[in-house]
Amino acid sequence: MYTKKIYFSGGDFHELQEVFAHLPGIVTTCTGYINGEKDAAYADVATGKVKAYMGVEVTYNPKKMDISKLLDILFAVVNPYVPDGQGKARGEMYRAGVFYVAAEDEPQIQLHLNFIANRGKAPAVGNAALTVNDPNSNPKLARKLYTVFEKLQSFQPAEAEQQDYLSRNPGTPTYIDFAKLREYVRF
């Protein structure tokens, strides 16, 4: 079976793994440390001693799941406009991010991120068919996108106790509302 990989970060990597692990077309998921130093450990990354992004490796079958849908799901649970974290997970290591492997994925991801950066309320149109308060013409009205977008440099799987954490500990409080997510995507 032909598979592809993509890497996501944003908030708690246990939650991201739980989100992507149950989607159709996903072959495997693995929590880990993205674009960081070799031999990183959870405590070192969580305290900022070692610079890396906490994230998830998603291996998927592109015939059953496409990259656009994966990005839609990521940004349904991760706010790309918030710097350095989601919910109670705060710090650069928790920043929203998309890390690609295949060069062919770069333009599609860039297009998706450009769409997210420029979405918002439609500009008001006056009686004279003039656009009023166009968010694209006033930088103060534009939203800043804090999502990291890079080619993957390195990925180190997290320790065994970090893998499938929420599946093994179902009562753990989460920032992501999985009940709402189930309405959006069938698990």
Supply database-style keywords:
187 residues
What does this structure look like?
- This protein is α+β, with helices and mostly antiparallel strands and 187 residues long.
- Helices cover 26% and strands 22% of the residues.
- It has helices at 13-21, 42-46, 67-77, 106-118, 165-168, 178-184; strands spanning 4-9, 26-34, 53-60, 85-86, 89-90, 97-100, 124-125, 131-132, 148-151, 155-157.
- It has a six-stranded mixed sheet with strand order 9-6-1-3-2-10. It has a two-stranded antiparallel sheet with strand order 4-5. It has a two-stranded antiparallel sheet with strand order 7-8.
- The longest helix has 13 residues, at 106-118.
- 30% of the residues are buried.
Number of strands: 10
Number of distinct helices: 6
Mean of the pLDDT scores? 86
Q: What order do the helices and strands follow?
A: EHEHEHEEEHEEEEHH
Q: Strand order of the main beta sheet, please?
A: 9-6-1-3-2-10
Question: Which sheet architecture does the biggest sheet show?
Answer: 6 strands, mixed
CA radius of gyration is 18 Å
Backbone structural class: alpha+beta
Low-confidence stretches: none
* Overall spatial form: globular
Terminal CA distance reads 22 Å
Strand content: 15-25%
Helix content: 25-40%
Summarize the structure in short.
The protein has 187 residues and is of the alpha+beta class. 26% of the residues lie in helices and 22% in strands.
